């Protein structure tokens, strides 16, 4: 439903949907219907492959989506049977301490804006539909509603890989499943599959893969039946705890992760390589609760 602004009112026109959909086409397939915008992460129309360009694109894409008044509800999902994949060896072939100062600074802002721009700049209801295992589940967890499939694999890989869990997943675990449980999952990297995530309060529904995205659209269409003011102001209430969490703790978490990355690089890549199955195709052998 288009805005009905007062006759004297006006706004500076944002980027058009067609423009930013094309701009981020290498990372998202964007579709919009009746005010509901769906962002499907992908790489060459297959499961999303992590890259430093993609790490930068997330925060920018949230700004474009949030700035377009024609977007009323956001659905975020992945492609195929994986939420997110990656090759640690390809990403971390150069120790962080050897990156240029500008690249190190860019890493900090990309980490920060990945969550901050989603929470502070997208002022509409958000629904995540986690379609399978994969890392970077923090922004799915921070959405207003989170749906997933049974073989989702919510986990924080940083400590197992010799790093510090500071880029958001540890923080979202603390704020959803509690401090004591979160510390266990941050240290062990144990799997939180769909059923366990539901039991602990990390997600709202667990669905068969073929029902996941249709259910997200069902909820989005239900939300769209309510007045615009009710939608946006309810989202403001729902997202306020996340805003408080980011203001209170996120900079602290991120700075400690990056500080840790400048020290003790020996052996870290070998640890990441040993975990490569978690990032790609292998499924953990057993669930941990």
UniProtKB/TrEMBL annotation:
<protein>
    <submittedName>
        <fullName>Enoyl-CoA hydratase/isomerase family protein</fullName>
    </submittedName>
</protein>
<dbReference type="Pfam" id="PF00378">
    <property type="entry name" value="ECH_1"/>
</dbReference>
<dbReference type="InterPro" id="IPR029045">
    <property type="entry name" value="ClpP/crotonase-like_dom_sf"/>
</dbReference>
<dbReference type="InterPro" id="IPR001753">
    <property type="entry name" value="Enoyl-CoA_hydra/iso"/>
</dbReference>
């Amino acid at each position: 439903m288009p805005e009905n602004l007062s006759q004297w009112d006006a706004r500076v026109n944002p980027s058009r949907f067609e423009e930013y959909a094309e701009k981020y086409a290498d990372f998202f397939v964007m579709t919009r219907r009746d005010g509901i915008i769906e962002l499907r992460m992908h790489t060459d129309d297959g499961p999303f492959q992590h890259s430093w360009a993609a790490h930068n694109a997330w925060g920018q894409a949230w700004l474009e989506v949030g700035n377009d008044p024609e977007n009323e509800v956001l659905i975020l999902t992945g492609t195929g049977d994986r939420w997110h994949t990656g090759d640690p060896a390809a990403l971390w072939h150069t120790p962080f301490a050897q990156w240029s100062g500008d690249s190190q600074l860019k890493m900090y802002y990309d980490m920060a804006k990945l969550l901050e721009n989603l929470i502070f700049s997208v002022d509409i209801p958000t629904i995540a539909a986690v379609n399978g295992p994969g890392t970077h589940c923090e922004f799915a967890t921070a959405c207003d509603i989170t749906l997933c499939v049974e073989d989702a694999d919510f986990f924080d890989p940083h400590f197992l890989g010799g790093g510090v869990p500071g880029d958001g997943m540890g923080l979202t675990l603390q704020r959803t499943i509690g401090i004591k449980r979160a510390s266990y999952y941050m240290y062990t990297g144990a799997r939180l599959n769909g059923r366990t995530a539901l039991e602990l309060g990390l997600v709202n529904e667990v669905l068969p893969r073929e029902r996941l995205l249709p259910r997200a659209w069902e909820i989005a269409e239900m939300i769209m039946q309510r007045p615009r003011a009710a939608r946006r102001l309810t989202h403001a209430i729902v997202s306020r705890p996340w805003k408080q969490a980011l203001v209170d703790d996120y900079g602290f978490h991120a700075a400690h992760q990056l500080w840790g990355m400048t020290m003790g690089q020996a052996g870290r890549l070998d640890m990441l390589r040993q975990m490569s199955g978690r990032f790609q195709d292998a499924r953990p052998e057993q669930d941990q609760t």
